[in-house]
Amino acid sequence: MTANTKRLHMITWGCQMNVYDSGRMADVLAPLGYAPTEAPEGADMIILNTCHIRDRAAEKVFSELGRLRLLKQARVAAGGKMVLAVAGCVAQAEGAEILARAPYVDIVLGPQTYHRLPEMVARASRAAGAVIETDFPAEDKFDFLPDATAASGPTAFLTIQEGCDKFCSFCVVPYTRGAEQSRPQAAVLAEARRLVDQGAREITLLGQNVNGWHGAGADGAPSTLGRLIAALAANPNLLRIRYTTSHPRDMDDSLIAAHRDIPQLMPFLHLPVQSGSDRILAAMNRKHTADDYLRIIGNLRAARPDIALSSDFIVGHPGETEADFQATMRLIEAVGFAQAYSFKYSPRPGTPAAGAGQQVDEAAKDRRLQELQALLRSQQAAFNAACAGQTVPVLFTGPGRHPGQLSGRSPWLQPVHAAGSESLIGTVAPVQIVSGNPNSLTATLIPHPMEQERTQA
Ligand code: SAH
Ligand code: SF4
Ligand code: F3S
Question: Cys-Cys with 161: which of 38, 82, 213, 231 at CB 3.0–4.6 Å?
Answer without folding.
Answer: 213
